[in-house]
């Protein structure tokens, strides 16, 4: 069973329809935001959101704006992480990064704009206001100091991370947004907080798995597969699962994490085929 | 009648209570965010929000989180605008700017974090979910491409602005956030959209007045009054109301704008004393 490309295509089609400005004065900003947003990729976060909707027995259409806003937040984080003051990366998915193409000022604003428009899109989702509001609360919490931005802060400032602190860093930096991709769908779908446990365990494990595999691929992948120079973690002096555990142990950790994700999924009361295929893809992916 | 310092003090006290992290790993990020947030100032946006609440006959306490989130968004915009790639300013309110004190990476993240936490705080405001959700929608819209971020994009990229385009720039960059400071209070206070017209006219005019006076003060103020070097607009090559209209005509425009703001306020059905005092302050202020 392969990655749910039908869901990914639905996300891509929906993202294509989104324009941020009809005002000539800001057309260049709109262009820079769409440049990064439409650069491709597996769309793991929005696909997770839609797969969760399907597991609840729902059609995906009402969830498309939620899904798009999650991808917009992810893209914003990539644009800011690539900046010269941060990771100083010139390539992303094989293309020049935003600040290389548009300059640093526009890249900062493209990231800021994607975040604001993500909140706007999610908050404007049709449906029960209490459910939509909870989705927005979850998103804001996952992107703030106790989430993505806090994780990036640890990543750029911390030195000499040990195993616990590395895990904590990634639970903030990448884990929270992956978890919230599932959680926003649960909130919008009206799943009571008391019923979300297995989903949350699955998503938390998926976030860990994602990062371990990412660290492995930075060592074992090729430039073409990665869309960026192989070995960039080491050149950036980054502590990774591979640098702390070694390649074989990191692969073993990935295998355990994959098993635990599937085990959590077994307790989900619903059609979990899509979610399982995402976990399998993240575990087996080569780029 | 003077500026409503009682409301400003309520805002300052409330902001003091806000901490963004109890996690040692992100304590430095919390510190940098609070450094910029607690740097003082007149708190015009949150005070406008609270003054609007008072005009509705409401107590201010339920509105304090909304007010704080508006100031957090404003602070985030200042931190990013000051960055080397943007306006490259070293001083703000007489103190080193965030990137001077904490470095550029942390300053970018402090801005990102303040924005996320502002959304989080506003979305978590107690009350009718539909009203809170509308406030969040308004905030996101005012900060996105058709608001603050779009205005900053025009500011850093546009050349040879004429009068219409200067007005458009400022209606996006500073005007939308000032307007939304009133509008979020109206939404949360349950004022029907059809009843908001006079408030919106007042707030829109106030935004224009604010910018005209800001441009005048950059020419006539002293370094100490401004908290930054006088004449910085001219050195940055910025088109301003003074550069386009001349000082005397700019002062005349400010006077007209102040009159129109008060005229709009006369149609507001409520206790508008606080709102009028804010307009008077913005018109007469010397820093």
- Main sheet overview of chain A: 2 strands, antiparallel
- Would you give the CATH topology of chain A? Farnesyl Diphosphate Synthase
Q: Greatest interface and its residue counts?
A: A-B, 56 and 56 residues
Anisotropy-based shape of chain A: globular
Helix content of chain A: 55-70%
Average pLDDT figure of chain A: 95
Termini gap of chain A? 18 Å
Individual helix count of chain A: 15
The name of the CATH superfamily of chain A reads: Farnesyl Diphosphate Synthase
What order do the SSEs of chain A take from the amino end to the carboxyl end, as H and E?
A: HHHHEEHHHHHHHHHHH
Judging by the overall fold, what is the CATH architecture of chain A? Answer: Orthogonal Bundle
Identify low-pLDDT runs of chain A.
none
**Whole-number radius of gyration of chain A?**
18 Å
Strand content of chain A: under 5%
How many structural domains does the protein architecture of chain A include?
A: 1
